[in-house]
Amino acid sequence: MRQSDAVGSTHQSTPVSNESSQTTTVEPSVAFQWAKVATTALLVPALGLTAHLFTVALEERNLAKDYVELAVSILRSPETNPSDAQAEINEWAVNLLDLHSPVEIPEKLKQRFVSGTTRLPELSAIGAADPYTPTQHPSHCTIHLRHGNPSAGDVVCRLGFAFGYDTNLRITRWVSYRLVNWFSASAERARFRTDHLFPQHHQVVAAYRASGFDRGHLVPLSDVSWHSDAAQEAQFHTNLAPQHPQLNRGAWLSLEQAVRGWSQEKLVLYVIAGPVFDTDNPRQLNDVLPVPDAFFKIIFDPSAQSALAFMLPNGPPQTAVSLSTLRVSVDDIETRTGLDLLSDLPQDQQSALESEIHDMW
Question: What is the predicted pLDDT for the residue at 59?
Fold first, then answer.
């Protein structure tokens, strides 16, 4: 009798003929035992294969993270005019990142990575790094201060931006950050709170209450909402300044929206913003916080080596204004603030870039 006959007959007796023409009956219980043996023989290897595939999947996931980290290390600081060999390495790293990164990279941006004209965002910004603890993060200074440190106040580098904080005035004098158009905004708005690096200024957050001024963001929340930690840091008092409601909800908001629109076209922009004080003894908000006379914002496009600069008075507009009428030169902003902006650019480039009022993009 063949074993396959016995296995296939689990629910009825099977007559089998031998050379003597005698009939033998196989009991169902025996056939069932044969089935169990066969099933077990198949199941054990199947479970083993499943465990193996699961292990391979975990190894591939870890390997993918290693690949991403390798690609990032290559592309984080590309040369401006790479050699043919370096360009090939950049292209290999871009392909590696394209295969294993959790985000899709636009084709145009890949080309800029290969050519070395654009730096890759920090690994934490593309979702492959360990959870970020809100604190000073010196490595991000190289990103957000790529084109210079304005050098006023205590410099703090965070996940989404860098800033210079004036401990005497209890206000941030400037913020600087890189805006990349392929970051998606997803983080929820957090409550306003005191920056834990300056706990002695805990009264600043409460100073806005019943003051008639808005808590104006220097770095817009929407520009850093690609990461929950960066969004929370945008709600610290060190990213806020007293803004007249008609400015905060009017021209300042329009400028923020315009910058995000330009970033969709330019891929990567660098933004510098801050308050302007025309006197050494500015008006105080509830005897706690100085009220700026104006606010400035500079948007630098490194690929086109062009910049737009704006100065917005901190008060109600006298007439309806368009953003184009608020343009100034970078030199104008430096004169009113005492800051040294875009200071790491070559001197001849700074002179050409900062002395003119440039056309709107």
Answer: 46
Cα dihedral sign, 79-82-83-85: positive
Parts of the chain with a pLDDT under 50: 1-26, 51-52, 54-63, 78, 121-134
What element of type H or E holds 56? helix 28-75
Strands (E), the chain: 16-17, 23-24, 154-157, 162-166, 171-180, 214-217, 240-243, 268-276, 284-285, 289-290, 294-301, 306-313, 327-328
**Which of 61, 86, 120 delimits the end of a domain?**
120
Q: Are 32 and 159 in the same domain?
A: no
Distances (CA, A) of 253 to 34, 199, 231, 244: 77, 29, 17, 12
How many domains does the chain fold into?
2
Q: Are residues 81 and 220 in the same domain?
A: no
Domain shared by 157 and 207, yes or no? yes
Cα–Cα distance measured from residue 41 to residue 38, given in angstroms and rounded to the nearest whole number = 5
Q: Which two tokens stand for residue 70?
A: 């390798």
- CA dist 308 and 181 (Å) reads 18
Render pLDDT for 260-315 as a digit per residue (tens, 0 to 9).
999 988 878 999 999 999 999 999 999 999 999 999 999 999 989 999 999 999 99
Q: Is there a domain that residue 57 lies in?
A: yes
Q: Answer yes or no: do 323 and 190 share one domain.
A: yes
Among 120, 152, 174, the domain boundary falls at 120
Average pLDDT of the chain is: 77
Domain shared by 79 and 182, yes or no: no
- Give the pLDDT confidence of 327-343 residue by residue, as tens digits: 999 999 999 999 999 99
Single out the residue of 268, 304, 310, 274 nearest to residue 146, CA to CA: 268
Question: In terms of pTM, does the model score above 0.85?
Answer: no
The answer to whether the beta carbons of residues 122 and 180 sit under 8 Å apart is no
Q: Which helix (H) or strand (E) holds 43?
A: helix 28-75
Which one-letter DSSP state was computed for residue 161? -
Domain match, 83 and 150 both:
no
Note down the domain range covering 336: 136-354
Quote the CA–CA distance of 97 and 75 in Å, as a whole number.
10
DSSP bridge pairs for 299: 271, 308
Residue 361 counted as domain residue: no
